[in-house]
UniProtKB/TrEMBL annotation:
Belongs to the GART family. GO terms for molecular function: phosphoribosylglycinamide formyltransferase activity. Pathway: Purine metabolism; IMP biosynthesis via de novo pathway; N(2)-formyl-N(1)-(5-phospho-D-ribosyl)glycinamide from N(1)-(5-phospho-D-ribosyl)glycinamide (10-formyl THF route): step 1/1. N(1)-(5-phospho-beta-D-ribosyl)glycinamide binds at G11, S12, N13. Keywords: Purine biosynthesis, Transferase. It comes from the Bacteria. NCBIfam families: PurN. Its EC number is 2.1.2.2. The keyword Transferase applies. PANTHER family: PHOSPHORIBOSYLGLYCINAMIDE FORMYLTRANSFERASE (PTHR43369). It is an enzyme of class 2 (transferase). This is Phosphoribosylglycinamide formyltransferase. InterPro entries: Formyl_transf_N (IPR002376), Formyl_transf_N_sf (IPR036477), GART (IPR004607), GART_AS (IPR001555).
Amino acid sequence: GRLAVLISGGGSNLRALLDACEDPEYGCEVVLVIADRHGCAGIDHAAEAGIDTAVLAVTDFPSREEWDQALASRLTESSPDLVVSAGFLKILGSAVLSAFPGLIVNTHNSLLPSFPGIHGPRDALDYGVKIAGATLFVVDEGMDTGQILAQCAVEVLEDDTEEVLLERIKAAERAQLVRTVGSMMRDGWRVEGRRAFLNARP
Ligand code: GRF
């Protein structure tokens, strides 16, 4: 499967995917990495690995719509089988969503529908839950609202700080992302109403 990856940050999820792609058995290839801001460490890493990269910052465009349009065209050029939003902090607009209907997944560092938004682990800690985790879901127009493809849980320990919990979640999250994307590309998936099924064809 051809993967296009969207990032905003360090790109540890991207790195995990790139590592997995080294193994031919994994059956996937990262064909494009796009960042929504300048200076993401993940972009340099991808460029060094010889992957096609682009930085499309909203502030470089006259409007949000034009940014979304540019993102859609750049993605379309690389003809991905799946767009993986891996720590991408912008909500995708209608141009991108309609160019890849049901073909964009996002990984989030909480057990949705609890704690959507950019502070999942902190909000989980503040709430006092004993189990936290990560969710891979199909992107729709909402924020962290799409159909859930996979979830993994980690324990919240008594002396956890936000940083420690975040790292525990991220380790599980990376493994889940690699495993689930591989399964989707190999064995397909299907969405029916609110539910998503792995190892299934539409
Ligand atoms: C991930 O934990 C993701 O859930 C959140 O941001 C983090 C991205 O990390 N939205 P990285 O850039 O892949 O290291």
